[in-house]
Amino acid sequence: MQKKVVVFSQIDQEIIQRLEQQFQVFQISPKLGDVNQQILEHTKDADAMIGAGRLLNASNLAHASQLKIISSVSVGYDNYDLAFLNQKNIWLSHTPHVLTETTADLAFTLLMSAARKVPVLDQWTKQGQWKRTVGPEQFGMDVFAKTIGIIGLGHIGAAIGRRARYGFNMNVLYHNRREKIELAESLSAQYCDLDDLLQRADFVVVAVDLNAESKALIGERELALMQSHAVLVNISRGSVIDEAALIDALSRGQIFAAGLDVYEQEPLQESPFFTLANVVTLPHVGSATAATRKRMAELAYQNLVDVLVHERAPRYVVNPKFE
Ligand code: 8YV
């Protein structure tokens, strides 16, 4: 009998076609009604799932008795209940590396946009408000040779560091669970504790994974440590920052600006951020270029085939041995 694959988000069409040539495929779609109900129903006889951007846990996978792998089309895996998957002997795979440079590009896009007020000035120009030469209201802040503080010097954090050091001659500070001596040397980066980094950086970029330690890492106290001219950028996960505290800090002008790609609740709807001129809001597009999303889907497909066809561990496994 053909194995069954449940696709739980939009993914590259070519990959769907390849899956359809080998497996029975069901695509979850909000158009077909309640998504969690569809997941419950269609994972009863599923061997694999592929997709991203949905919470998958003990409650919506309750009937997934023959599931062998969840192949996530993402590098982050905070949407999945690892303890549950381990207990059920279900592999979890992800797609690291292929999105590193694209996501680092987006971090810099946000940094530059927030520093130079790009979205506001774009609107201002299009609305015909450019009647004379610009004044202090339109002025932004310099990026070149300033100090950047990177929280989380993983692959993406390091790629941001390279742009900062070699593209913008920035002084690089970083905070990480453990020091990365060699990598730091190549970026002339200095290791700091979190408070020190927040106090010294002109630009603070959050690039950590979301886990128990990093949840609400940046709250009211941490925002208060930042300089009043500083810019905060988040390309990791929304819950790393206490959103209410950030909204408050931005409203009071406690920091200069923020550039955000990720939020506590996604998709972001009717947020106080929408009324603030000093925040740039993007819809979680860190990895969203056509080429990178294609590479991610391809890698996720290979992870899935490793398990369903070759009966071996996925090449990019998150839970290498079940506990
Ligand atoms: C995902 C991401 O593609 O890879 C990640 O962890 O955040 C993005 O690149 C996104 O989560 C898909 O919804």
Automatic annotation (TrEMBL):
UniProt signal peptide: none
InterPro entries per record: D-isomer_2-hydroxyacid_DH (IPR050223), D-isomer_2_OHA_DH_cat_dom (IPR006139), D-isomer_DH_CS1 (IPR029752), D-isomer_DH_NAD-bd (IPR006140), NAD(P)-bd_dom_sf (IPR036291)
Keyword set includes NAD: yes
Keyword Metal-binding attributed: no
Limits of the D-isomer specific 2-hydroxyacid dehydrogenase NAD-binding domain: 109-286
One Pfam family cited in the UniProt record for this chain: 2-Hacid_dh_C
Domain of life: Bacteria
GO molecular function: glyoxylate reductase (NADPH) activity; hydroxypyruvate reductase [NAD(P)H] activity; NAD binding
Keywords: NAD, Oxidoreductase, Pyruvate
Protein name: Bifunctional glyoxylate/hydroxypyruvate reductase B
Organism in which the protein naturally occurs: Acinetobacter amyesii
Lineage, uppermost ranks: Bacteria, Pseudomonadati, Pseudomonadota, Gammaproteobacteria, Moraxellales
